[in-house]
Specification:
mainly alpha, single chain
Length: 650
């Protein structure tokens, strides 16, 4: 009876067998999972233990690199930040540290920015100690900063190796601005030894003229020979009065030619028509270098495209074709867009490089400018663009009444770089230890390599340093990684600001994303502050208007900055009758400029793409597109442009 019972196969045998197999696999998986979790915990414990040892080693160094420190250093031999301990040892013993020790450290530090920082400290101390040979030994490399190059030259002069020092000094001294003070001792010694030759003085004078540094032009007189002083005086005169560029000047023929070159460039900026006439005359007197001629012609063309006193139109067209300069061609194309000269546009479009022709912007306008028999080409171009992401893609989608899209996005899991890089490991550990400044410098040093940059972007995002992730994703060219490039941050602050301003969260995020890359501590060169990059004067007026207590220091707080910034943006939108396009242009360039730029009758696309300021043009396009991207990510309804914004009244 038992045998038949064991031989019986039930009707749902497949289910039973599957259940048994699943149970077996689950048991194995649970076992493997437990092992993996245990291994992960072990790794985490090991890393944490290494971090504790590192911090203990740093503490030990306060009393010197004694036996306890040496033991810890041996145990940390494979720790990513071990070189930081070595740097501390050198920094704490600069007086006695040797060239060999420094070179050994530099070799181990590799491409870490810590290497050059430590070398700079070492060399500065050795300059004070007048250890010239030591300085020469450790600075025998090609990647020196200006300061280190000057210190090396100073040391070489003091070791009577002037022939090796002078090329370094010529390079450091011949700039169009005042050089850093760290170079002064080297220059002083050089001036006592021989000083710059007339050729070097003249080279610096030309750079000073290009940099519009009239003070430096006068200063250089003291280093010139009697003959060169005449040429410098004539150069200064033509610099001040470029309309006299065709008059005869003194000095060597090559100097006369260079003065003419400087004068034509100066004149092109104020009166390109006169500069054109002067160049025609001067070409009969001087044999300009090819580079000089191209630069003068390019400047005359550039300023003719904006000025009333322009060079002859036919000559400008000939130069645009000959110069093969995308930037100049784009300026010309924008003029054709503004006047709707589509025949002229189609001709000039062919002067663009293949790379430029393939961009969304110029593909869009080539479709708009389609000539007879090109309707199918235009339709195909619009359909292709409409599948993408960005200002011109959304213009195309709006034209075709197609839904807006986030475009083709790579699978984040597939694109994530899993290979380990030393710089990524260093950044990770520095962040874990709260050494943000050091982490930032290491982070920046790794952005030149796309694979490393993408790994750093992933690390930054996981560490909630989203402005870093945005920067690294751009450096990696990971344009499809919307997850890295458009994160949602400071949600409570933006929600509150949206309610108070009456704008959407996505609209405010779009502005902050363009203004500061979502960095709450961003401060621009002109003093704009925080997420929304508010100027203190603008913030003060907006705060008072809306009964807010103004505080300059609070502009660095996300909540306050987004609140005041949101109200300012909403005020601008109200001022322009609900038109975000004009409001954004005013947010970036100021209402007065927007007033000058409006002529009436242009479509929104033509007006935006012919805004004279490149920064403002790109700003308006970016924020409008970012608003769509954030809305699509949030799953909220969005239109690219409203009916009133689409009306041709710009």
């Amino acid at each position: 009876m038992l045998t038949p019972m064991f031989n019986v196969v039930p009707t749902n045998s497949r289910i039973v067998r599957s259940a048994c197999l699943l149970a077996l696999l689950c048991g194995k998986l649970l076992s493997l999972s437990a092992i993996a979790e245990s291994a992960a915990e072990t790794v985490d414990e090991t890393v944490e233990h290494s971090r504790q040892k590192f911090q203990l080693a740093v503490k030990e160094l306060r009393s010197g690199a004694g036996p306890r420190y040496q033991l810890l250093r041996q145990e940390l031999a494979d720790y990513p930040l071990a070189m930081y301990l070595d740097a501390l040892v050198i920094e704490g013993n600069l007086h006695y540290a040797t060239a060999d020790e420094m070179k050994t450290f530099m070799a181990s530090a590799g491409d870490s920015p810590l290497a050059m920082r430590t070398l700079r400290s070492f060399v500065r101390h050795k300059v004070e100690d007048r250890r010239w040979q030591t300085i020469i030994e450790v600075t025998d490399r090609s990647d020196l900063s200006t300061e280190l190059s000057c210190h090396r030259a100073h040391a070489l002069l003091n070791r009577r190796r002037a022939s090796s020092a002078i090329p370094l000094l010529n390079s450091a001294w011949s700039v169009g601005k005042s050089q850093i003070k760290a170079c002064d001792p080297a220059f002083k010694t050089w001036f006592k030894h021989s000083g710059p030759t007339d050729d070097v003085v003249w080279e610096r004078a030309l750079k000073a003229a290009d940099a519009r540094n009239s003070y430096l032009l006068r200063y250089l007189q003291r280093f010139a020979s009697r003959d060169l002083k005449r040429s410098l005086a004539d150069l200064a005169e033509i610099y001040r009065r470029p309309d006299r560029v065709t008059q005869k000047v003194r000095g060597r023929a090559v100097h006369q030619r260079d003065i003419a070159y400087v004068g034509v460039k100066r004149l092109a900026r104020v009166n390109p028509g006169k500069a054109y006439n002067a160049l025609q005359e001067l070409k009969t007197r001087f044999d300009f270098e090819t580079g000089q001629l191209s630069e003068m012609q390019g400047l005359i063309v550039r300023h003719s495209l904006f000025a009333k006193s322009a060079a002859p139109a036919q000559w400008i067209l000939e130069q645009l074709m000959a110069l093969d300069d995308d930037e100049l061609t784009e300026i010309h194309l924008r003029a054709k867009i503004e006047t709707a000269d589509w025949t002229g546009f189609r001709e000039a479009y062919t002067w663009l490089s293949a790379e430029k022709q393939s961009t969304d912007e110029w593909r869009y306008w080539r479709a708009i400018a389609a000539g007879p028999g090109e309707a199918e080409l235009a339709q195909t171009t619009f359909e292709q663009l409409a599948e993408g992401r960005g200002f011109h893609a959304y213009l195309a989608a709006t034209t075709l009444a197609k839904p807006l899209s986030l475009g083709m996005m790579p699978d984040a899991a597939e694109e994530t770089i899993t290979a380990s890089h030393a710089v990524v490991e260093r950044v990770s550990e520095l962040l874990a230890l709260g050494m943000d400044w050091e982490a930032r410098t290491e982070f920046r040093s790794g952005l030149d390599e796309p694979d490393i940059a993408l790994s750093l972007a992933e690390l930054a995002a996981s560490s909630e340093r989203h402005s870093w992730a945005i920067e690294a994703a751009a450096a990696a060219g990971a344009w499809g990684r919307v997850d890295l490039r458009f994160p949602l941050v400071f949600e409570d602050e933006f929600e509150s600001a949206a309610k108070e301003s009456g704008l959407s969260v996505e609209a405010l995020l779009a502005v902050a994303r363009r203004e500061s890359a979502l960095s709450p501590d961003a401060v621009s060169e002109v003093g704009a502050r925080g997420l929304m990059q508010l100027m203190p004067s603008t913030a003060r007026l907006t705060a008072r208007k809306h009964n807010y207590r103004y505080s300059r220091s609070r502009l660095m707080r996300p909540g306050y900055n987004t609140a005041v910034g949101g109200l300012y943006y909403a005020d601008l939108i109200d001022n322009y009758g609900g038109n975000r396009v004009l409001a954004l242009a005013a947010y970036n360039a100021g209402p007065n400029r927007v007033r000058r730029w409006r002529e009436g009758g242009l479509s929104v696309a033509r007006w935006v793409d012919t805004i004279p300021f490149k920064e403002t043009r790109e700003y308006v396009r970016a924020v409008l597109a970012y608003n769509v991207i954030y809305s699509l990510k949030a799953g909220t309804a969005v239109e690219f442009l409203s009916e009133s914004e689409l009306a041709p009244n710009y």
